[in-house]
Design a protein that fits this description.
It is built from 6 helices and 6 strands, in the order βαββααβαβαβα. The radius of gyration is 15 Å and the shape is globular. It is of the alpha/beta class and 163 residues long. β5, α5 and β6 form a beta-alpha-beta unit. The longest helix has 17 residues. Strands 1-6-5-4-2-3 form a 6-stranded mixed beta sheet.
Length: 163
Amino acid sequence: MDGEASQPDAESPWTRWMERAVELAERAAAEGEVPVGAVVVRNGELLGEGWNRSEALVDPVAHAELFALRRAAARTGNWRLTDATLVATLEPCVMCFGALLEARVGTLVVGAGDSRRGAMSLWKSGHLSRYPARPLTVVEGVLGARCQALLKEWFAKRRAGTD
């Protein structure tokens, strides 16, 4: 398997950026979107950010991670985001995971896992091991309980029809 996966310490260096991603996820929820937020950072600098907008834009690919990657590429003037980190409140889907690999992102930081639609199980099992040209470091569980609670609350309201 290319890259490595790790669990964060109680106070991860990524907590600050995950807090920003959570703010963006809360914005998505307030707009009636699945609460997912993402930021791209490099050397302590915010390069791009995004939140889910599929409902508002009637666009199946309007995911938080893709907005963050696009904005980071526009800001840097380069689609190759080498040495950048994508911080996402939810484990990326296969589409978003492919995009971060294409962008040459070096580190992925994930809040909550997604056993149903997340791409990490494919990556960990080696099914995507030949894809990245360089290793990908993965840090899982940063503010994981908070990210998971936000999603659970949003889906519970949705099922109850109170959103």
